[in-house]
Write a structure and sequence with these properties.
By secondary structure, the protein is mainly beta. It has 4 helices and 11 strands, in the order H-H-E-E-E-E-E-H-E-E-E-E-E-E-H. It has one domain.
Length: 237
């Protein structure tokens, strides 16, 4: 990397890192939103393990063996068809040399097909709801994020350090829940819209959706409250 490009590269990575940190810190607040809301992670956050380089970033490969490495996070709403998401990407040649790098931003939620919830998925990874990076306190069980499998399709914009930006379709497949046989491989796929190049082989990387369960609004009555009459008779003189 040239000396002239290094400050720009650092700026791009810092910006993307700040965006990801915003999503990570915001999880407890978003956990009290509507049930149509989802958080998602692509080769980032708690999915990354120090001794497992295959978890992050998520990697997809084309028929010509070039690859895209993608990391990111975001939120989307299936009812409003809205999405807020961003991350970093790196495009590499078949021999492993870097062709371009930059950040990506989601423009549109095209579709989401849920496979259902998988309550034990986080415990299997040794992640406790409410612990870092979810926040200093445990979330109430009624509002805790619920791991969910599914296939999300986003339209994204790739903003490279040099050259024109590109639009692409990013598929994120989380193989949890009742997974269809043809979608049993977890990972990502990428399709560049201008030239139609397909990166259709999931090489590695962890992805996950977290469904936001609505907070229970019904008040819980104590035994003393349940025993008390709903209306009290006025005291007799």
């Amino acid at each position: 990397m040239s000396t002239q490009r290094e400050p720009l590269y650092r700026g791009i990575i810092w910006t993307a890192g700040a965006i990801l940190a915003t999503f990570l810190v915001a999880i407890p607040a978003r956990a009290q939103s509507n049930s149509g809301d989802y958080l998602f992670f692509v080769g980032s956050g708690f999915l990354c393990q120090p001794n497992d380089s295959s978890a992050c970033p998520a990697v997809t490969k084309s028929a010509g063996d070039s690859t895209y490495e993608v990391s990111g996070a975001g939120t989307f709403n299936t009812k409003a068809k809205s999405v807020t998401a961003a991350g970093t990407f790196m495009h590499k040649s078949p021999n492993g040399s870097t062709l371009e790098t930059g950040i990506w931003i989601a423009n549109e939620l095209v579709s989401f097909d849920s496979y259902g919830v998988a309550p034990g998925a986080l415990r299997q990874q040794g992640v406790a709801l409410g612990s870092q990076p979810f926040g200093p306190k445990r979330l109430p069980i009624s509002s805790a994020p619920m791991p969910t499998g599914g296939l999300a399709v986003f339209r994204i914009r790739l903003l490279a350090m040099q050259g024109a930006s590109k639009t692409a379709v990013l598929q994120v497949n989380c193989a949890l829940g009742d997974v269809p046989r043809e979608r049993s491989v977890e990972g990502i796929r990428l399709s560049l819209e201008k030239n139609g190049t397909e990166f259709s082989e999931e090489v590695s990387g962890r992805v996950m959706f977290l469904s936001m369960r609505p907070e229970v609004s019904t008040p819980i009555r104590t035994p003393t409250q349940e025993a008390a009459p709903d209306s009290a008779e006025p005291p007799s003189n």
